[in-house]
Design a protein that fits this description.
The chain has 478 residues and is α+β, with helices and mostly antiparallel strands. The chain has two domains: 207 residues, Chloramphenicol Acetyltransferase (2-Layer Sandwich); 258 residues, 2-Layer Sandwich (Chloramphenicol Acetyltransferase), CATH 3.30.559.30. Helices cover 39% and strands 23% of the residues. A seven-stranded mixed beta sheet has the order 1-14-4-9-8-2-7, with helices on both faces. A four-stranded mixed beta sheet has the order 10-16-15-13. Strand 5 and strand 6 form a beta hairpin. The radius of gyration is 23 Å and the shape is globular.
């Protein structure tokens, strides 16, 4: 089961040394891809925002967090020939990898797309044994999103097992990728290694199709569209911008660090969920309500404005598509003198009624309502993953267990303030990514301590009383 040991910054990872093999596009493949013609398919709104954020950070000399890095162990000696086949099949199978982007005429983004996926060819390159520091440096040197080959695959071979590692720019993938690549690579590699035929995988969906459909949908929106009006109202409730970060991050300096806290064990998680259901909500509503109450206890803010990251995949094809589908749902939760139950009901209603807003990107709202603006500081985002029941629980137990799977933050400066609450079968934990400076570290520590105290109060049956007196008393005691 994943725990604190499964998550961390790449610079803290100390893989055992061994013989390293990395996969890079061949020179011929790079040349063919660079000559790919311009495509009429637009970049998705997520990709466009990512590219513009990268350029903005680079212009300020800031190394933006952008890489999705993961690793896991496999027994035996790696069959380089088989894994080469598997990697190339993966890259050719999913059209998210078939394009690269450039800026033209200032801010306009052009997509170039390879006509023949067979032109994509990665080849293994053997390296001398690398120290952990050298291997980490190699991984984080993955090319930028302005280059097509902003992905890397590698193995570290040891006497009786090897570590497989990938580093892929967020431009091409989202959080669903880890499960997809783990299943796809594992199934194909083990089948071929056993001498069988490649497994019959379901046809992959098309991210380009999603990009076209997304732009058709957003282009049809007007200022009078209910979804746009809902976003405008949310912005205007926050002085024409998005909510502020609930904690002080100091001057924002410092590389990204991660703070992890175990919120509840298995029994406490079950009791917390029971309290959410008894209040007329679900576990997710309790997660949102707890974030609202933590902010109230720390700041006294009687209304919580939050942004919940949400996967927007809706069709069968989209669930078989690798790409970036994340949108955001705005939630508004009155707290003040409310009990936990009242906060849960308000949180659940706000989230459930606003799910459709995840399909409306910030950029389109600002185009239609130019008097609104994005904030200068980091936007706070709330992520919630429930892997306590099938199908995710099955993947976690069968695919994560015993494989030493790890997810590594690339150490770059985050463009947002992320709070991630993950529920597993045996525990619930929270992670916060933050800039590593003394003010931010102290603020985040206090925030997570407050958040944990709320979860435990509810799990212990102490969430029914009005929380105004609880918060006021706590502030008096500080």
């Amino acid at each position: 089961m994943p725990g604190e040991e499964a998550f961390g910054a790449i610079h803290d990872w100390l893989p055992d040394p061994g013989a390293v093999v990395c996969w890079h596009p061949s020179p011929a493949s790079l040349n063919k891809v660079r000559q790919a013609p311009i495509s009429a398919v637009p970049a998705s709104h997520q990709q466009a925002r990512h590219l513009r954020n990268f350029v903005d950070h680079a212009a300020r000399g800031v190394d933006m967090s952008r890489l999705c890095i993961g690793s896991w162990d496999m027994a035996g000696r790696c069959d380089i020939r088989v894994l080469t086949y598997v990697i190339n099949t993966h890259l050719r199978r999913h059209d998210t990898y078939h394009s690269w982007f450039e800026f033209a005429d200032g801010d306009r983004i052009l997509r170039h797309t390879v006509r023949n996926p067979a032109d994509i060819q990665c080849v293994p390159v053997k390296h001398d044994d690398m120290t952990p520091e050298e291997f980490r440096e190699h991984i984080v040197a993955t090319p930028s999103p302005l280059e097509w080959d902003c992905f890397r695959f590698a193995v570290i071979q040891r006497a009786d097992h090897f570590t497989f590692c990938f580093s892929i720019d967020h431009l091409y993938i989202d959080a669903q990728f880890l499960g997809a690549i783990r299943m796809e690579l594992y199934l194909m590699y083990t089948s071929l290694l056993a001498g069988g035929a490649p497994p019959a995988l379901p046809a992959a969906g098309s991210y380009e199709k999603y990009c076209v459909q997304q732009h058709e949908y957003t282009s049809a929106l007007t200022l009078d569209s209910p979804q746009v009006q809902a976003w405008v109202d949310f912005f205007e409730q926050n002085d024409g911008t998005l909510p502020e970060c609930p904690v002080s991050l100091g001057d924002g300096s410092g590389a990204c660090d991660l703070m992890f806290v175990r919120l509840m064990d298995e029994q406490q998680t079950a009791e917390f969920e029971d309290a959410c259901i008894a209040a007329g909500g679900r576990f997710s509503g309790g997660v949102f309500a707890s974030a609202a109450l933590a902010q109230y206890e720390l700041t006294g803010a009687e209304t919580y404005y939050g942004l919940v990251a949400c996967d927007t995949r809706g069709s069968r094809d989209e669930f078989l598509t690798i790409g970036w589908f994340t949108g955001f749902v705005p939630i508004t939760i009155p707290v003040g003198s409310s009990s936990f139950g009242a906060a849960v009901r308000a949180a659940q209603q706000s989230f459930d009624s606003g799910k459709a807003l995840a399909n409306v990107p910030f950029s389109r709202v600002l185009e239609l309502a130019p008097w609104l603006r994005m904030p200068q500081g980091r936007v706070p985002l709330l992520f919630h993953l429930d892997a306590s029941s099938p199908p995710l629980s099955t993947i976690v137990k069968s695919e994560w267990g015993g494989s030493n799977i790890k997810i590594h933050h690339d150490g770059g400066v985050p463009a947002r303030f992320d709070l991630r609450v993950n529920r597993y079968e045996k525990e619930t934990h929270a992670m916060v990514f933050f800039p590593d400076n003394p003010v931010a570290r102290e603020s985040v520590t206090r925030y997570l301590e407050t958040l944990k105290s709320i979860y435990l109060r509810v799990a212990e049956g102490r969430g029914g009383a009005p929380l105004w007196d609880v918060a006021a008393l706590q502030r008096q005691l500080v």
